[in-house]
Amino acid sequence: MRDGESSTRAGDDVGQQVRDRKLEDYLEREALGRRMDQIKHKILILSGKGGVGKSTVAASLAISLALSGHRVGLLDVDIHGPSVPKLLNIEGRRISVRDETIIPIEFDKNLRVMSIGLLLQRDDDAVIWRGPMKMGAIKQFLKDVEWGELDYLIIDSPPGTGDEPLSVCQLIEKADGAVIVTTPQDIAVTDVRKAITFCWRLSLRVLGVVENMSGFVCPKCGEVTHIFKRGGGEKLAFEMGVPFLGRIPIDPQVVEASDSGKLYLHFLSQSETARAFAEVIRPVLAMVEPARHDEKT
Ligand code: ADP
Fold it and tell me: Would residue 150 count as lying in a domain?
């Protein structure tokens, strides 16, 4: 074969590969779109950085919604620190796969849960994945989980404003918006500014900011101490013109419940903090389903 011919054939092969890749991408997006169309409302939970309680807020909002009678899915795609399995004590549960789809765990009659952590064999698995592998895993995971019909899907996204949350936000088309979690101190609030700008760039509605770990309520005397300052999240939300959803106090019972996988039970106990979470979700519901909310009020 002459040089010219072999390079033309190599070019054709590359062209075919590019076309195949595009078709595969298109089919994956279609499949994801079909699954997402069965879900009425999709809410992303974001944070400017890790450790502010994003997963706790995501799980708590999902539990709160489920307990108030909505059909809810909780999806944990925080590839670096998937904490939902621990919070709900589903670590080690086997994933069931049917017809190449992943069946979420029926945690309660109104709550289905799936975490990327259940796919990882060891805690450090995700860390050693290279960038494209992580993106591929996130995409495939979003596409393959068969939720069925839901009122709400709460998505615990990876923290920050890098490539991973970007992929998640871009893949979940027609999301109702994002709830951004922060703690009250200045350094966390600076990251929230970035998270809000990130949403704006993606034309993703900011449903509001939650100030977590806002004040410590003494279990003995009930006095509130503002260990990390107070009001940073609220001030920033006001400055940037986005809703402020409320404050959640630091609650030793939440730490205990999270560490022992009893977050759900904690909610059933109707603690002050559980009530604070329920209050946070109220304005979100009013935003995403105003007609229904008006009927009730
Ligand atoms: P992130 O998802 O932002 O990394 P997590 O939700 O995993 O954060 O929370 C980090 C730690 O903080 C966990 O141990 C969790 O139990 C604790 N935590 C979160 N919110 C609260 C709260 N309101 N009161 C007490 N502890 C909390």
Answer: yes
